């Protein structure tokens, strides 16, 4: 089945009328916590339905459109829960402010096998077909998107190692060049030139969440883990697993169940920090020098 893009609207009310009926209007709007980048609201409609809405300036229109595509791609694998995407758009009645409308999640208590089920569903997502997402290559995605607030390049390539070098590490190193001296830059060049010494091509391409840390999944209506706030692309499944370990890690039962469902290639732990170098560089570029020592430590680990 070909991949279809989520709908786009230029008026929130038109979107609500399309999905909930012509008489559905916003009866109440409650501000909720929604991260550092966007405003977030729960909209209660006159018919009793509730909708989750992210909002930002007109300039963030592309950010929401790509997030909608990422969630839609995960949903298309039919392997793991994620909020239904209603639409994205800009509201002509609010100075063109951008918005993203999603299914409102009224979470249930988590099931007793929460972590094991999460792992098996993620493994199934990683094993799902990716052909619809990379029609011109094996790795990358149908469009560029964002990692946090930063642009993420997804130019399609046949080689995972080349993709990770050219679309992940190199752009981040270039953006962070002012943090490095001549010695550092020499090491960085050597690392990029010899990346195939450290990384390996995967057995199969995988759709990745792309930013899989503890803040980017929730408990869904079925009591299982649901993925949110993706930075999706097709790559090596190891990159998703490495990200789960960057900021404290998940439950040990998650990793046991994942490796049972999708055995890791030998040597993963020697590659893990290279995958996370991408995220640490992104944090360095977004948030500043506090991440520089961690970045240099990983560079020195490999060069």
Describe this structure in words.
With 303 residues, this protein is of the alpha+beta class. The protein is built from 9 helices and 12 strands. The protein has a 6-stranded mixed sheet. The longest helix is centred in the C-terminal third of the chain and has 20 residues, at 268-287.
Topology:
Layout: E1 8-9, H1 12-20, E2 26-32, E3 39-45, E4 50-56, H2 61-76, E5 85-91, E6 97-103, H3 114-127, E7 145-147, E8 150-152, H4 160-175, H5 182-193, E9 206-208, E10 217-219, E11 225-227, E12 233-235, H6 237-246, H7 252-261, H8 268-287, H9 292-302
Parallel strand pairs: 1-5
Antiparallel strand pairs: 2-3, 3-4, 4-6, 5-6, 7-8, 9-12, 10-11
Helix pairs in contact: 3-7, 4-8, 5-9, 6-8, 8-9
Radius of gyration based on Cα positions: 20 Å
What is the arithmetic mean of pLDDT?
Answer: 95
Total number of helical segments? 9
* Biggest sheet descriptor: 6 strands, mixed
What is the topology, as strand order, of the major beta sheet? 1-5-6-4-3-2
- The helix content, as a percent range, equals 25-40%
The span between the termini is: 44 Å
Net shape: globular
Structural class: alpha+beta
Instruction: Tell how many strands the DSSP assignment holds.
Output: 12
Low-confidence stretches: none
Q: How much of the residues is beta strand, in percent?
A: 15-25%
Run of helices and strands: EHEEEHEEHEEHHEEEEHHHH
């Amino acid at each position: 089945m070909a991949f279809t893009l989520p709908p786009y609207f230029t008026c929130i009310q038109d979107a609500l009328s399309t999905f909930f009926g012509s008489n559905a209007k916003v009866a109440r709007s409650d501000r909720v916590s929604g991260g550092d980048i966007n405003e977030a609201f729960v909209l209660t409609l006159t018919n009793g339905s509730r909708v989750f809405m992210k909002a930002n300036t007109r300039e963030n229109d592309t950010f929401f459109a790509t997030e909608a595509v990422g969630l839609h791609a995960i949903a298309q694998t039919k392997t793991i829960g994620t909020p239904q995407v209603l639409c994205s758009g800009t509201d002509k009645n609010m100075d063109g402010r951008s918005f993203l409308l999603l299914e409102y999640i009224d979470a249930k208590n988590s099931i007793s096998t929460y972590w094991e089920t999460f792992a098996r569903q993620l493994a199934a997502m990683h094993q799902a077909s990716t052909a619809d997402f990379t029609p011109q290559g094996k790795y990358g995605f149908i469009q560029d998107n964002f990692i946090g607030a930063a642009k993420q390049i997804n130019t399609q390539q046949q080689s995972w190692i080349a993709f990770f070098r050219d679309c992940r590490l190199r752009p981040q190193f270039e953006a962070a060049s002012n943090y490095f001296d001549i010695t550092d830059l020499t090491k960085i060049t050597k690392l990029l030139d010899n990346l195939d010494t450290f990384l390996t091509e995967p057995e199969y391409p995988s759709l990745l969440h792309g930013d899989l840390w503890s803040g980017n999944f929730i408990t869904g209506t079925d009591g299982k883990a649901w993925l949110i706030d993706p930075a999706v692309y097709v790559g090596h499944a190891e990159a998703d697993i490495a990200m789960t370990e960057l900021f404290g890690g998940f439950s040990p039962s998650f990793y046991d169940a994942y490796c049972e469902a999708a055995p890791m290639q030998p040597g993963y732990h020697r590659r893990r920090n290279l995958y996370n170098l991408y995220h640490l560089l992104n944090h360095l570029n977004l948030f500043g020098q506090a991440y520089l020592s961690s970045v240099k430590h990983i560079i020195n680990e490999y060069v």
